[in-house]
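Weekly modeling sync, notes
Attendees: AB, CL, MP (scribe)

Item 1: holo prediction request
CL wants a bound-state model with beta-D-ribofuranose before deciding which constructs to order. AB pointed out that an apo prediction alone won't tell us much about the pocket. Agreed to run with the ligand included and paste results into these notes for async review.

Input as submitted:
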Amino acid sequence: PIKIIIDTDPGQDDAVAILLALASERLEVLGITAVAGNVPLDLTEKNARKICELARKPGTRVYAGAKSPMQRPLVTAEYVHGKTGLDGPSLPEPDMPLQPLHGVDFIVETLLREPAGEITLCTLGPLTNIGLALQQAPQIADRIKQIVMMGGGFFEGGNVTPAAEFNIYVDPEAARLVFASGIPIVMMPLDVTHKVLTTRARLDRIATIGTPVARAVVELLEFFERYDEHKYGTDGGPLHDPTVIAWLLRPELFSGRYCNVEIETESPLTEGMTVTDWWQVTDRPHNALVIHEVNAEGFFDLLFEHIRKL
Ligand code: BDR
Ligand code: CA
């Protein structure tokens, strides 16, 4: 199996990504590290545990990482995800424990312990934990197989400001460290996540599975899509974070190109922007595989097959 660490700020779409990963026997989830983002850390770590219990995988190790971005105050997104971060279904308070180790220490220790080049980091929230891990132990950079991240946007623009996507906007300094690290990066920007919409027909199909997990997924996504449907008038909202896991399972559903991505951290107008050299107009080195296209039907088939297994 592919060994992964999921770094996340659940979030309804994070929750679906976690379920997808836990459902696959081709992925080995070494641990889940929570970060502050959509809601504060005490909620994101609890939400991660709620989802593991929903998937009936209470043995999954969940760690709490950073409470706030590397250099800035935390910006949250209750206006999208609700007060709990996981509004929609009513999920019980988790029984499974939070691991005592700090999430950043877990990332560092695991990377130093496991053979180099084997671990993929799946990042679904602000990059604070990864930035702190790189700062604490720069030697881990060479040991990470790759980072597959949901973050950024280029032709599509931003969803927090006209220029910036939420995950990068919350902690641009951490994102800058990650993009400068030399670690192979696969980036799922809004340009691709806005192509996988939770339409009524797709949710109805998941509902036919009829299990508690399927019901919870539908309730999570019905809540989540309200914001985007209202704002953009689309049928359904973008299922951002599950694209990260889907890429690991079926990369042939996606396409993109290698290019240079730099992070703006200073301009008040564009801070958190992922400046993407899609047209190769500079000679700056390629540092990311930037995904742009997705087979949306194939993506929802994959999701359906996996939710059915839980
Ligand atoms: C990203 O921000 C969060 O609100 C979602 O969970 C996703 O990771 C989309 O911009
Ligand atoms: Ca997220």
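Recorded for review: DSSP finds twelve helices and ten strands in the chain.
Action items: CL to compare against the apo run; MP to circulate these notes.
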